[in-house]
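[User]
Protein folding is very new to me. Any chance you could explain this protein sequence and its structure tokens? I have pasted everything here:
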Amino acid sequence: MPEIPSLDQFVERQLKSGKYQSYEAMVLAGLRLLQEREQEYDIVANALRPAVEDFLRGDHGEEIDIEALLTEERKKLPHRSA
């Protein structure tokens, strides 16, 4: 398994490559990515919240016959010839 370079080495390589003009520019880019990820997390969490609340109240939704569902979905796949 290849060794994972240290953050210092990563920063040094990025700066030498010219991809970032400064350490501060790298930190800013990282913070923007973190902000985007957190916003995406919030969107998913807010979308799931009603279902989680229903589940916690004992409403476990409808049962699904997974084998029947898989059989139906497989019918939609293009057939391969051997």
User: Anything to note?
Assistant: Residues 50 and 58 are 13 Å apart (CA to CA). The chain has a mean pLDDT of 89. Helices lie at 7-17, 23-56, 66-75. The chain is about 65% helix and 0% strand.
